[in-house]
Structures are given as structure tokens and as C-alpha cells.
Amino acid sequence: MLLPLLTPAAVAAAPDDTTPAVTVGDQHISRADLVGAATATAERLGAVDRVAVEADASLHTVVAVVAALIAGVVVIPIPPDSGPAERDHVLNDSGARLWVGSAPADARGRPHLPVRLYARSFHRHPAPGAESPAMLMYTSGTTGRPKGVVLSHGALAAGIDALAQAWAWTESDTLVHGLPLFHVHGLILGVLGPLRIGSPVVHTVRPTPEKYAAAGGSIYFGVPTVWSRVAAEPAHAAALRSARLLVSGSAPLPTQVFESLRELTGHEVVERYGMTETLITVSARADGVRRAGWVGTPLAGVSTKICDEHGTDLPHDGESIGQLFVRGPMLGSGYYHQPEATAQSWCGDGWFATGDVAAIDADASHRIVGRMSTDLIKTGGFRVGAGEVESVLRDHDSVGEVAVVGVPDPDLGQRIVAFVVPAPESQDVVTSGPEYAQSLIDHVAQQLSVHKRPREVRVVDDLPRNAMGKVRKNVLLDQF
Prior knowledge:
single chain, Rossmann fold, GMP Synthetase, Chain A, domain 3, 9-stranded mixed β-sheet
């Protein structure tokens, strides 16, 4: 059972449990009340086998998800801000029969089953098997239409338990975050994680430095944008000194943010790596070494390797880069109704081809360079990782944000191009013209091998991003 602490038997064993298990903004609910409301909702699902949940930041979303999991019904979380075309695609592709919890103004022809937060039932439902599908979670769709990833009850449990071990995460912790509840980070790690482990969770609705500082948690989740904002507010950052772990994911954390947080909070941020298809497979440990730009070592039960484009294993020397392959008990079962796409990524003997470029050192620590499709640049006979160039450019005082891509070049094969958003504090620096571009090119050439320098720098006002803040490099490449 994914949520052993939320079974009627477990609740009955602690009848006086009135401590908030989940707090969202100004609302909170105890473990006993959560299982009572979720079970009452589960009873009303009838013979429905899959439901859509408009995953806004609310207790209704939490109760709806738990209700479906208790009933053995597949959950399809849908972003509240998704447009009609995306919403229709996910609903039609998944076969969602109705909405549970909050419902959008346009339900796209599906009935709505509201959640009653004060309803109570403690009826016993048969526990779903480990192989039973629990969630159909759609990818962010950066390279095409979103694909539904089938995640079983066993995969969710294995993923959460492996992180609990790596982070020494127990019921004594209080998790704080303000992340969206329609992705792995915010929903599976950030809600189902504490519910399985037994630790309270406080969702701040919006992940602002002020709200994080006031929450009084022991573990904090954030994406790099959140942590860069915390680092820019020294007083609020200092309030996190009493925490135990600061965790970052979903995108690389800039080195300067890592170092600023270490100075302001006393913490070295825990970085971790995962995908919708695999959950979290690699992470720094609570009792281990943490290095800026490195995402740690494989979790319990996880194996990893890197291979070149011919499938040949590459050495774990910290320098060789190739496609990262992972396997472990938390991997998804495949793409829903897409056998060809599944066969391309789930490639035999339990291995999953992540499509990410990485380096692994002799101590099994991983550095993620970027995506194979956009971040492995072959220029002049050299293999260059875009992430390495981006990391150096971010360290330049005048650079706020940056994305590096490889564009077709008749001489080099690909040439390295950097899209740069100047830092707000660099207003006194001339950030346009050939002199500025050359200064950034020279900066990279001085820090890395000369062949890794950008051949062109374009100054832009902003970078195109998806809902989780990841840069959509395919949009930048389309400009060429």
C-alpha cells in the first residue's frame, strides 16, 4: 500500500491524532480527517477506473489524489493553467472519466465529483497491488505533445523510500515547499512523500522567501528560481539556518546560488536528479559530500551508466560525457498507449535511456550536462556539454540567465551559441554590441578549453520556459 499511514487501521491506532498532516496556505487537515474525507470520496467513485484532478494548490487536490489512490483508481494530475488544446489532449489520451476535487470552468464534457472536506468514512478498500497503476503523469512536452507515463503504486513507494533513506527523512521532519502539485517534485515527493513517511507538510501556495522563512520547517524543497530568490533576501535566507536540508531539483542550480546559500543559511543545498519517467534516481545524501553542479550518487536499488552514441560504455572518470542510462524499482512502466516510444526509451534489461548527457566520476557522483537532443554539441570534432558552458557564463557578474545551444555550421558541424539575459544589477555595464559578446566569449575560453567557447552571443530579454521553469531550447533553435 502506497500510504500505509493513511489506512483506517493505522488511523484507528492513533484516534487522538489531531496534528495537521497537511497544511496548504491557511487550511490544514489532520491525518485522521484526511483519511476520513478521502475514503468518503473513494466510496463515491464507483466503477470509474481513472480520474482527472485539476491539481491546484489546495486541500481539495490532496484529498482527491489520496481518495483515488485508496480506491485503486488511476490519477491524472492536470495543470490548472493548461490551455484547451493541452487539456483536451491529456483528457482524451488518458481516457479520464470525470474530474475529482476542484474542477475547471470548462470541464471539457466530463462530469465533476466534488470533494467534501468534512465528510467522513473509514470503509476498508482492498489495497492495490504493487504493479497496479497509480498515476498517469504527463511529461512537460518540450519536444512534442505530452506523453502519459504510467507510474505504479510500487514505483511510487520505492522512490519515496529511497529518498527517505538518502535524506534521513523521518516522521520527525516537517517538509515545506510551494511547488506545483501536477509534477513529480511537488506532488509525489512533496505530498505523497510526507504522507507515506509520516512527516507533516506545509505548502506555502507560493514559494516566496518570506513564506519559506516563516514556515519553520526542517526540510525545504525548491527549484533554482526559488533558491535564487531566497539567496537575494539575506534576512529570509538566514531564517532557514534552523532547517536540516535544503533540496533543489528540476533544473541545475547555479554555482553562485549554491555558494550564496551556504554563506547565508549554513547549508550546502542537496541536489537530486530525476524525470517523470523515472522519479528520482540520483541524489546527494544527507550525510554525504555535496558539490555545486553535481547531483549526487545513485539511490538504493539504482544502477547508472553512460554510453556514447554507439551504445559503448564510457569510463566513470568525471570527464567523459555520454547519454545517461538508469534502472531501478522506481521507474515508470512505459508511455501510455505508445509502444514504439516506450521501446525507444525502456531499452531492455531494465535500463531506461534518459536522453540526458552526464558525466560520472570515480566516486559515482553525477554531473548532468543537458539533453542529448539540444545539449550535446559536436563542434570541430569535439563533444561539448552545453551545461558546462552555461555554468561558466552564469558565474560572470553581468549574466543573469543563459542558454547554450549548438546550431548547424558548414565548417564545424555545430557552432556554440549562447543566449544571454543580462543581470539586473549589471545596468552600469554595456550589455550590447560586439565588445560585450567578446568579453563573455573570452571569459569561457579562460575557464574552459578554447574549443568550448561560444562562437556567438545573443543578448535577449528573456528565455522561453515551460511550466516548471525549464528552458525550451527547441524554441531557441527554431530561430535559426
